[in-house]
Design goal:
With 83 residues, this protein is an all-alpha fold. The protein has helices at 14-27, 32-39, 43-50, 58-67, 78-81.
């Protein structure tokens, strides 16, 4: 069983974003079809996002994030800023 995500959750790869979306959806007791209906996307798209498919459409992904009450922040990497 996967460990529950703790927020804030660091997203380094598309698959981590998908995991955060899936975990939040499940915590809200939503099926993929429920989220698809709310967001006007398809179950296939939601499945692709949750599996970390790297060709996801970001505009639709932001719709999913908003529907689940999630926000995406971009912050500078402190290690790279020291150089």
């Amino acid at each position: 069983m996967k460990e529950k995500i703790k927020y804030p959750y660091r997203v380094r790869l598309v698959k981590y974003l998908g995991r955060a979306i899936q975990d939040t959806r499940k915590n809200k007791k939503m099926r993929q079809s429920d989220l698809a209906d709310i967001t006007g996307t398809s179950v296939k798209f939601i499945s692709d996002v949750e599996r970390g498919k790297e060709t996801i459409q970001m505009d639709k992904t932001f719709v999913l994030l908003r529907a689940l009450g999630l926000k995406l922040y971009v912050t500078p990497d402190p290690i790279e800023n020291e150089q």
